[in-house]
Specification:
Layout (H helix, E strand, L loop, with lengths): L1 E5 L4 H10 L6 E6 L5 H5 L9 E4 L5 H11 L3 E4 L6 H6 L1 H20 L6 E7 L24 H20 L2 E7 L2 E2 L8 H13 L6 E4 L5 E3 L1 E2 H14 L5 E4 L4 E3 H10 L6 E4 L17 H7 L7 H19 L2
Parallel strand pairs: 1-2, 1-4, 2-3, 4-5, 5-6, 6-11, 7-10, 8-13
Antiparallel strand pairs: 9-12
Helix pairs in contact: 1-8, 3-5, 5-6, 7-9, 7-11
Length: 325
Amino acid sequence: MKVLITGATGFVGSHLIEYCLTKANVKLYGTVFSYHSKDELKNIESVKSKIKLLKCDLTNKNDVIRILKEVKPDKIFHLAAQSFVPVSWKDPQNTLFNNIVSELNIFEVLKGMKLDPVIQIAGSSEEYGLVRKEEIPIKESNLLRPLSPYAVSKITQDMLASQYHRSNNLKTVITRAFNHTGPRRDKRFVTSWFAYQIASIEVGLQKPVIKVGNLDSYRDFSDVRDMVRAYWLATEKCKYGEPYNIGSGKTYQIKEVLSMLLSFSKSKIKIEKDPQLMRPSDVPILQCDCRKFKKATGWNPKINFETTLKDILNYWRKEIKLSIK
């Protein structure tokens, strides 16, 4: 089976590569924006010999034609995206262009080729945006009230996947992942940002003060290693053209997440709010109703959240120690 992962060197992509390698008779391909960026290849250092990386700008249709002709994939996991919400406020144009046009090019090229892969589209719980109390936990049928350009881009990806299935019979599988985290998560994201600062404080690289943004929001966290297992199952079990929520069904307030991480450290650390870390608008609560996906696939998360947080903190402890040697 030929599997193509767009955004293969990213956080989720690197874990998906590791999961795919547990499957028999799978040949892996991945798109990469540059062969020469050490930062881009860092996440897959231990597995890069087991995947064929192909340089590709997904917003360039000719690049997409070249890649799909070469690979002829049986499955496509479309993970490539500008995925950091705050960046989408600073640069909405590029967020919308990158996230929408990359997917559109894949669909348009496949439409004109004699290929019939299953295409998993990595959507986001951010699409739901402003959720009312009576709508918790959130079902796939919930109204989409986006609160960021990133969320708008993901809704557009969803709608395109649905439309191209109905209009062109493309085998699109739409997943709406709630928050997922784990080792290798970029430190711009909240769990890694906290863990990175704690690890820096422990070795004296930062004063014993942790900078935070909004701590009042509630999020539904899963481990990325559970999430990539879910993505694979989605391509095997889910109906095409339909959205599926994926999440734990349990929420943690961000201040609780911080408290848990601080409890794993012996350092005495103060908390300080940083106005620059506050968002123009924030989703108060995201809690997943995952019954539709679980019924279709039998999936359940296996890794508890405390283990995930410990793994993130230990990852940053190791990274920081390596950086100061």
